[in-house]
Amino acid sequence: MRKFFYTTILMLLNLSLWANNIQISSVALTNDSTITFSISWENSWRVSVAPNNHDAAWIFIKKRDCASGQWSHVDLSTTGANHTAGAPLETYLDGKDGGGVAKGLFLRRSADGVGNITSVSVSIRMVGLAPGEYDFRVFGVEMVNIPQGAYNLGDGNISTGSFKNGSTSNVLPITSENAITVGTASGNLYTASSTYRPVSLPANYPKGFAEVYCMKYEISQGQYVDFTNSLNSDQGAARHFSSAANRHNVTGIWPVAVANAPHRAKNFLAWTDLVAYLDWAALRPMTELEYEKITRGAAPVVAGGYAWGTSNITDGNTIVSDGTATEGVSTGITPGSGLANFNNSTILGPLRCGFAAKAGTTRYEAGATYYGVMEMSGNVWEQTITTRNATGTAFAGNLGDGELSLTPTPGFANVASWPSQQASVTSTSSAVGRAFRGGGWGDVSSRLRTSDRASINGLDGRRINSYGGRGVR
What we know:
By secondary structure, the chain is mainly beta. 9% of the residues lie in helices and 24% in strands. The protein folds into two domains: 124 residues; 327 residues, paralog of FGE (formylglycine-generating enzyme). A hairpin with a 3-residue loop joins β1 and β2.
């Protein structure tokens, strides 16, 4: 059995000294079932003090049958010893995939440490390969560990639609993944206005207490193009979007579409597009509650606070190195203020993923969350699973399996409990079960607050210039 291979480098930030990136090189196939490669990325960490977490690379593999030209996901062995990584890394299987296979694995530091990961050798065992000739593509996505633990929901009833503790204006402690009742009694989930009031949350609805890994950055334009180019032709046609409007710079057609600003956050991302990408990458959407946990973490609640943990904000509106791997802003900020892309009449679209992070920047200056996730306030909207209706709260956290729907309705996510997976991209009311959090490049500052829920009733299924997103696992 002879197989061919080539490598894809799926980078969030390419060769930048100011922010992280993943580079995969020297891909080789051995024994017809083992992929080896080298991996590098910058500014890796693992710490046993607050925030007690680490970064990681989520690795998954796709194959194309050379006879049929069809793409499919590659399953991996669930035996840990079948995968190896050189120091200082280890491989980690989270055991969340069913069917006796793994849809991917994490590479992370095996012990506490901080610094760059440079050309570390990795070996991954594939399973279930039928005889044939294949092209292989290895993908990597930067992730941040969000550890299990309690946190507080809401911000003292300051932000629009903010969650609160019963009839009071107090925050609601989330101390488990148990079901949560909506009501005015102490310990119940509630909101001041019925416009934003949730329905009761069943035990299976993810509440942010359990550990997850979250994408460090919003999906980039380069990532999305790599996704559509690695689909079958009818699937790619359904998910492909070319435009040069509002700093979205994608040209060409499947399978040779090109992201001309690959490091820039992906906008015009319809709900259907987002969940298809996440299913394909064996990730899943986050819930409203997980958004607040990922953003606020174990830190004390700040009334009207943003992702970086203060209520002060600076609009980054003076762009430098436009369109490059170091695209950013030169806007200065005052101490304690976070830098974000919002309320803009000059930069009419998203900036580079991680645009505010430079050598030596603080959490505020970088606009980072408690755990080190970037741009959870501003740039493009985060799309989450709502608590507002039963369609959203039926979501049980099922993971994508790497495969999208086939003809006659190709290119859609097809995961149990995910809402509105085939929402029309031409309808203003098709995305039932989705909520927006975190604000975008054109929004007023209050929309960027961690607890702001003014847009949790958003049903618009269209590709809008400020819609973006990311996934968790």
